[in-house]
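Q&A FORM
Asked by: J.P.
Topic: structure of Prepilin peptidase CpaA

PROVIDED:
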Amino acid sequence: MNEWAFWGCLPFLGAAFLTDMLTMKIPNWITVPAMLAGLMAQGLTGGWRGLLFAGAGAAAGFMLLLIMHIIGAVGAGDVKLFAGIGAWTGLLFTAQVIVYSLLFAAAIGWIIMLKRRETFRRLRSVARLLAGVFYMPKWTLFKGHDCEMLRFPFMLAVMPGAVTAFLGGWT
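REPLIED BY: S.T.
REPLY: Here is the structure written out as tokens.
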């Protein structure tokens, strides 16, 4: 990934961060232009190879986050935003951002659980899930006392994940 691609993607990440923090949604007026601008920028700078690079990144970001959306871990705006991140930065960098974002999200989740004092109850739920070899969970692991999802804006984890990938990722 070229450094300019990260800087081109950053305004879209900033806008998504602000709207996600304020409304817990990432609107299409951010995600669609992010993807189109990434495809166009990569196509203009790299020709067909750039378009292939951007398309592979967009597809990877979309598909990986779609799986997370299906299990209820992220919203649809996050799925489309990662397609935009992938269009700008390609497959490898997008995968790094996802991994780092999940690590930051896990840390944020633990902090929330510690604050709510429900850590040990959730650990017992994990142990019960792991103990049942033929048991198919209903994803209740992510629910709190009143069966509400443990929710926070995913951009709270994506922004530091993207910066971490940029500053010291695997590439």
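FOLLOW-UP: The chain has five helices and no strands.
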